[in-house]
Amino acid sequence: MEDSTRLLEEHKAAVARIQKQVKHFYDNKKHFRVYHGSTSSTRPLQFKRDAIVDTSDMGRLFPVNLDTMTVQAEPKVPMDALAAHCLAKGVVPKIVMEFKGITVGGGYSGFSGESSMYRYGLFNNTVSDIEIVLGDGSLETASRTHNADLLEHAAGSLGTFGIVTLLTIELIPATPYVQVDLQLVEDVTKAHDIFEAATADDAIHFIDGVYFRKGRIAIMFARFVDRPPAPDKVLKKMQVHWFADTIEDILDKRPTAEKPTSIYMTTTDYLFRYDHGAFWGGKLAFKHFHVPQNALTRRLADPFLDSRTCYHALHKSGLANEYVVQDFGIPASTVTEFISYVNETLPELQIFLAPCKAPRDIGLSSRFNERVAEVADQRIFAVGVYGRGPRDPKAFYELNRKLELRSAELLGAKLLYARTYYTEDEFWLIYRKDIYEEMRKKYKAETLPTVFQKLQADMDTGAGKRRPVRGILETMWDKATGNKEYLLKK
Predict the structure, then answer these.
(1) Rounded to 10 degrees, what is the CA torsion of 163, 70, 142, 98?
(2) What are the FAD-binding PCMH-type domain coordinates in residue numbering (predicted)?
């Protein structure tokens, strides 16, 4: 009780400071950016000290409430801290994003999800309440019964409705271990059908897959278990850290739906199985710098391959200018066509696949242009496209535009944490500007940058110029010295 009281007092003081800063910008009619201290975005972000509201200290976690099965967290709380805090009480958030450094606030404002989103929707759909500082510095709350439209529209808006200062997150019971049943599927259409059938199985809790190349797709169904059949059945550290390679090796055994291969992981390892190397980025880094991959080199590089360090390195080195990192939401009727297009356009890639819910069920039907109503009742599939792109800047730009525009043609949409190449007209053809502006006016957000202005400002900074060796060395130095302010302009 004393801890809760102290946390609440500290929280109120931090919110009052943020309100004061926001009101200063509002009164002086100046735009500002929200500085979080870190990012899981690949956009070349740049912040100026005199044009930010600093929320980097907003990382307080309140006690788990087992009666309401919720926990309250400030926006800067990362996924690994949130998961550990909850697992200690035998529960876990309904959605836990796959990178340890993704924050609660980032997950809410960026349309994040993971392999349980077919049950619960996106992370923001599992947030029942928010506290938010609006654009004029006033403090407001929103829930499913109070300011419900603000709760819905502030989600996925990249912070363009205000600064969320507290979130209430829904929880479910959890066990210490997870069993993952893995099978090889050779055809995307068949994988889609298998995904759909699995969503009706109450014994399964997590569903996802990895498309390695044509004819080689790993489909994984996972469930909570109290313990593994034997201690030596649990994946070891390096097997977890190189999870994509671990499961691809299993595919060589050609596991089937009738005879899947079962692997066991701690629940924490399962939740963050893609963290090390940021999916399969670690493998790409070895290839980029012409370093052989073996047990020794992987061990030596291991401390620098967590997702936090990988994103730090992407920003420092400018290598995000050469690697495609994009996530799309594609309706069931066109997902096979989209994956086929991606495979032809970007041969050197791997794709993350996971079923979500339908747009109408997760509050997306009012976000996008009217044509999306055609697929509002179809299941969406998360399609994460990650791979090596062309080194030539013009070719890289054109490749990303092709992916963006093809997803729109197929009535899908991309997540905006990544680099965005739409023109302003294209952007507002996809996203509903009329509804967005109406909501911003209602909640006093008109002095804040719009979503497109934020995306455009990031892409126009000139940050992220290519400097691979120096950038990697600077990242290693920053990690050794504890420097985390690499996004702030000196």
Answers:
(1) 50
(2) 1-174
